[in-house]
Protein: 16S rRNA (cytosine(967)-C(5))-methyltransferase
Organism: [Lactobacillus] rogosae
Amino acid sequence: MCMEVNLRAVVLDILEEIESNNEFSHIIINNALLKYQYLDKSKRSFINKLSLGIIESQIELDYIINKYSKTPVKKMKPVIRRIVRMGVYQIIYMDNVPDSAACNEAVKLAVKRGFAGLKGFVNGVLRNISRNKDNIEYPDYNKSPYEYLSVKYSMPMWIIELWSGQMSIDTVKSVLEGMKCEKKTYIRCNTSKASREQIKELLQRENVTVKEVENIPYAYEISDYDYIAGLKSFQDGMYQIQDISSMLAGEYTAPKAGDTIVDVCGAPGGKSINAALKMSEQGDCGRVIARDLSDYKVALIDENIKRLNITNIQTQVYDALDCDESLINKADIVIADLPCSGLGIIGRKPDIKYNASPEKLQSLVDLQRDILKVVSRYVKSGGVLMYSTCTINRAENEDNADWICKESGFTKDGEYHQLLPANNSGMDGFFVARLIKS
Ligand SMILES: C[S@@+](CC[C@H](N)C(=O)[O-])C[C@H]1O[C@@H](n2cnc3c(N)ncnc32)[C@H](O)[C@@H]1O
């Protein structure tokens, strides 16, 4: 007999694991969803929405709890803190869950996890918040805009301050809005296997909803599938999942037929694959050398190129900090999509915002410069260095691009592109600089 699964208990386990492991929350959530693959789609989506939502909205949830609980969040027992956050998230954000169910289930969970003595406390705090949920007082946007944005969008204050030094407060707000809105899935069609129309048809036959993407002919936005790796079209290598900002980086790269391209930090292979396909589409497939730091990372690239059946990419385990003398002045294009603070993809990986710090950002700037200094040597005269990151941080982006131009004799090819997750675009934040070796 199949036991009824308590979905909130599953979420509680996920939250516990995220706090005790050094692993990204989306990986832990995906593993749980795989384990409970046999559940209805609606139940799995409840698990996903609730666990991800609690992490995304933690600063706001704690702010609300602290307003209505005599014991501050920080002083609560970890299990109780998680249970209360879970209850508050349902009360504030899940209209289809009655507040009474959110409260009762939280109380039951507290008892089940050995805290029967605190059931009155859990019940009291949650009922109090439920009663007052339409009158919660947030910081005043006009008086303290940073504090308001930090609470309302659960973004650490120092990140709001950092961005406010780089863009207007209205743009910061729209970035935060963009990060909070529903994430979309985009695919890059494998044009070496089938035309985009054929790929659209295959997807539609699998009941997937397919939408065109403006300005990128080989991309689609897809939705209404259950589990992407379970789709036959995915297994047959008809496409690669890739964010549009990353595909736009591929557009700026603009490889020519027969180019030699070195992707120095390549895993899991998105940019390499895009460049390889773009060359194949022009008739002479050239060659891409795709590298990363470890066997594990390179295996991720291998897995993708095998599934997509791409033959013009050669993979190698290679530390980008070590200079490879054999490549000096040999590449038409070097793709340097470097490790970065990832502030542009907080919408997809919310724990980035809690783990980042000003000190970590500075050490990434140093690492990026060290890598750029080495790999810029591989670009032949007149060739291209594509520097990109998935962050929104001038020191890692524009400043580093300017620095390498000065340091190693490159010039800007057009403007730098700082893509932002604007309202409802579902796009990640991304930076691309196309630099030409003088
Ligand atoms: C932003 S990701 C690259 C994403 C990839 N370009 C794509 O589009 O799929 C950065 C990669 O740099 C790799 N990396 C970090 N330090 C490195 C190093 N010293 N040498 C080579 N790769 C490194 C990481 O393992 C990570 O896979």
Remarks:
- The radius of gyration is 24 Å.
- The mean pLDDT is 95.
